[in-house]
Amino acid sequence: MSASKPSAAAAAANPPAKPSKTVVRKGAANARALTEDEIRAMPPADYMNDDQLAFFHERLLQMRSEVLAREVDVKERLHQREVFADPADRASAEEEHWLDLRLRERESLLLRKIEDAFRRIRDKEYGYCEKTGEAIGIARLLARPTATVCVDIKGQDERAESQYRDR
């Protein structure tokens, strides 16, 4: 199998075998699932319509439930107390404990971003850059549903951060 990417025409002619992730339209008389491909295929004039907002709302609900499940696992590991006779075993356990604390902190930040995305959906602000007001884009939102800025602004922010970072 070739490692190169197929052309856009070839990709359109041969859709991927992997089933697309779907979400059910809310309020539709004949409720059916929207796929990522259908979301991508919608015309630009339909950007962040009710169907797309419902799609991303469901995607965020799924993300939140996954994060909460991981949080439960981390909490259980953090509450386990073991006594180690060997200092090397204790050092390994402390390192794992530190990593679990770091994971819990990152998951907490992600939960806040998810809740903020729910607020933006509710306020009909979801999908638009917080700094410029431009559309973030379906492809970016599919990759990162909690995105709050467009790719151009994110790139500028990352370049500025790398210039001011301690070296």
Structure write-up:
The structure is a single chain. This protein has helices spanning 8-13, 36-41, 50-79, 87-122, 138-143, 151-164, and strands at 22-24, 33-35. With 167 residues, it is mainly alpha-helical. Strand 1 and strand 2 form a beta hairpin. Mean pLDDT is 80; it is low at 1-31.
List the helices and strands and how they pair.
Elements: H1 8-13, E1 22-24, E2 33-35, H2 36-41, H3 50-79, H4 87-122, H5 138-143, H6 151-164
Helix pairs in contact: 3-4
Describe this protein with a few key phrases.
167 residues, mainly alpha
Summed up, what is this model?
This protein has helices at residues 8-13, 36-41, 50-79, 87-122, 138-143, 151-164, and strands at 22-24, 33-35. With 167 residues, it is mainly alpha-helical.
Low-confidence stretches: 1-31
Oligomer: single chain
**Helix- and strand-based class?**
mainly alpha
Number of helices: 6
Question: Could you tell me the strand content as a percent range?
Answer: under 5%
- Largest beta-sheet characterization: 2 strands, antiparallel
Mean pLDDT: 80
* Helix-residue proportion: 55-70%
Rg calc: 21 Å
Record the strand order, biggest sheet.
1-2
Shape annotation: elongated
Q: What's the number of extended β-strand segments? A: 2
